[in-house]
Amino acid sequence: MIPVPDRVTVSPRPAEEDPLTASIRDVAGHAGVSVGTVSNVLNRPEAVSPATRERVQAAIAALGFVRNESARHLRAGRSRVIGLIVLDIANPFFTDLARGVEEVANAAGLAVILCNSDGQPAKEAAHLEVLTEQRVQGVLITPTPELSAEIDTLRTRGTPVVLVDRRANGPDQCALAVDDVLGGRLAADHLLEAGHERIAFIGGTGGLPQLRERYEGVVAAVRDHTADQDALTVLTPAGLTVAGGREAASRLLGLPAGRRPTAAICANDLLALGVLQEMVRQGVRVPEEFAIVGYDDIDYAAAAAVPLTSVRKPRHELGRRAAELLLDEAAGGDGEHPHVHQQLVFSPELVVRESSTVRHRRAATT
Amino acid sequence: MIPVPDRVTVSPRPAEEDPLTASIRDVAGHAGVSVGTVSNVLNRPEAVSPATRERVQAAIAALGFVRNESARHLRAGRSRVIGLIVLDIANPFFTDLARGVEEVANAAGLAVILCNSDGQPAKEAAHLEVLTEQRVQGVLITPTPELSAEIDTLRTRGTPVVLVDRRANGPDQCALAVDDVLGGRLAADHLLEAGHERIAFIGGTGGLPQLRERYEGVVAAVRDHTADQDALTVLTPAGLTVAGGREAASRLLGLPAGRRPTAAICANDLLALGVLQEMVRQGVRVPEEFAIVGYDDIDYAAAAAVPLTSVRKPRHELGRRAAELLLDEAAGGDGEHPHVHQQLVFSPELVVRESSTVRHRRAATT
DNA sequence: ACAGCCAGCTGAAACGTTTCAGCGCTGCCA
DNA sequence: TGGCAGCGCTGAAACGTTTCAGCTGGCTGT
């Protein structure tokens, strides 16, 4: 025998409406309708008669009611948030990318949780954990070198994950990459054609696949051009930062003049800025005595001591398209067609500025 | 007569555990305990016997269970997210600030939703609305010029709002500001003492209070130094960006040589970089023919064509302290003392580099 | 006149947690 | 030996939504 209360009072909160956090129930009470009707006004206004609708809207305004997303999400099963994990929030490449993501997400009514992994797998994992707890609709990530198990875990839970500036391992996931082999080749060809015979690649050969690709492109171009084994010097900086570039440059300057490269290709623009800064500080004239090519073409590349030649990536577009793919995957397609995983590869383009050209061939700055 | 079902089945989900989204109930079933016990393992592990605890933890691992933050928040009444709204995500000043915020928030187990208002009140309002719906624990904001009504609304709801890089209107709220009058004065004094008699202030006199303060500091310093009414020229750039700086510089160069300033104080470093870039492009030597002082001392200031003299603000520290104040306010104090609203004012400091000094007085670059 | 239908609304279940009253058991003390 | 405290656990309410079956009353068509 199940005991049944003879009368159930459904008003645990005081009749007095609490202005701090009015709920849909308070609105219903205030407007003299049921909670279901208030919900309809919010989500399917056309299903409610104009008179009632106005009454409810007046109550909403009077009480300052704002939907509780957590409750909404709990019931509806899907949240209105996406996550974005980048490698270095201080790198303008990623803020430009983030801007593109935010534009698309906001237009779709979604909030973006922007996380910074600083290239550390532990931080990345911690952020993924938080995003999982938040049950985000999807995650955009520029991952650390090893694709972590956490990413797969998230995907098996059914949360879409789109890789950004990184190739997918297989066809079962969306990814947006840039053809960095081409990028490296463009940079090297440019320097080799200008007559440089010894080139440095600053960025190392391991670590991030994006960097390895750039290195491979450089190697291929150099090999096509010369048989000299010493034509290419590789330096691995401490970090992909301005400071890392400065330190690499001073190492270059420590080489005996005969073996010292006359130009450097840097794995990103921050490194290039650091190299430039150190060269100028040591009295080395750029580009006359030393040419520099950067990568990413961040806005500061054009504003540098000597405007930097750089390999441009469509960072804003990368962000926008990534967000669009994520939303499409999260929605299961666009209504007509089911979602199909795409692996997009963008082509970079070389932007020639003064840092790699003799003054009389000076290019117009952007 | 209320109809009563003769038997209520409480198992709407299949007995088969769904690996996609195991709930606390699935874990309880798997471990042979009640949901309350699972919750205790998660939140008060010391209240559960070791044997049971291990059994539950094994079930959690086996099912890949991850807490649902929405449900947790709904019940507990407080979310584990804070919001940060900045004026320009592309400005490194704000990313450094964001980094400081994230450090503190992550250490406290909170996620940060980073929003970009782009200086537009409408975007700011939209972001505040989303953050309200998310029931964030608090909001850090560098607001657009007019403190919007939405901010007050949020505060009356009981959500802490801390103003960042902005003075509070009254003592009833936390705010962290920088003494920008002092900053403007430092910059102007530096140039005046170096012998400059005509100075430009690039940044306008209205708009953001931070900029107005910088302007006031400059005005005060100039007035202390000379009675010449024409000693100060004010330019209002289209935006606080590199492009805005370039455009302002070309306007300066359009002035008749006799009235043209010999130095500029820029309201931020992006403007200063733009001015520098345009000057160099037009063949004006910096600092010999034209001196430049920036503001914020972002990392790129030191890496510029001519390393920029700039007014340094403690951006990382600003972010950290802001987050700490917000957390303290959200927690209602530190346990011993109740929260007291604080209005912190940081002092900026002038970092002299080459852009404002003749070469032989060259300062060491950072 | 009556069946049938529809628009417009109500009321309750369900989402996944946390919290808390309460229950049974063990061991201690009087 | 009986009472009682405390440990470890259970079970259900509650958080604020959305969703959906179902109710009511007015209108239409025959």
Description:
The structure is a homodimer of 366-residue chains. With 366 residues, chain A is of the alpha/beta class. Chain A is built from 13 helices and 12 strands. Chain A has 3 domains: 24-67, 434 Repressor (Amino-terminal Domain), CATH 1.10.260; 78-178 and 315-347, Rossmann fold, CATH 3.40.50; 180-314 and 350-361, 3-Layer(aba) Sandwich (Rossmann fold), CATH 3.40.50.2300. Helices cover 42% and strands 14% of the residues of chain A. In chain A, the strands form 2 sheets. Chain A has a 6-stranded parallel sheet, sandwiched between helices. A 6-stranded mixed sheet of chain A has the order 7-6-8-9-10-12, with helices on both faces. The model of chain A is unreliable at 1-18 and 360-366 (pLDDT under 50). The structure holds a DNA duplex (30 and 30 nucleotides).
SSE blueprint and pairings:
The structure is a homodimer of 366-residue chains.
Chain A: H1 24-31, H2 35-43, H3 50-63, H4 69-76, E1 81-86, H5 92-107, E2 111-116, H6 121-133, E3 138-141, H7 149-156, E4 161-164, E5 175-178, H8 180-193, E6 199-202, H9 209-225, E7 232-235, H10 242-253, E8 263-266, H11 269-281, E9 291-296, H12 299-302, E10 309-312, H13 315-331, E11 343-346, E12 349-351
Parallel strand pairs in A: 1-2, 1-3, 3-4, 4-5, 5-11, 6-7, 6-8, 8-9, 9-10
Antiparallel strand pairs in A: 10-12
Chain A binds a DNA duplex (30 and 30 nucleotides) through residues 12, 23-25, 33-37, 39-40, 42-43, 47-49, 52, 67-77.
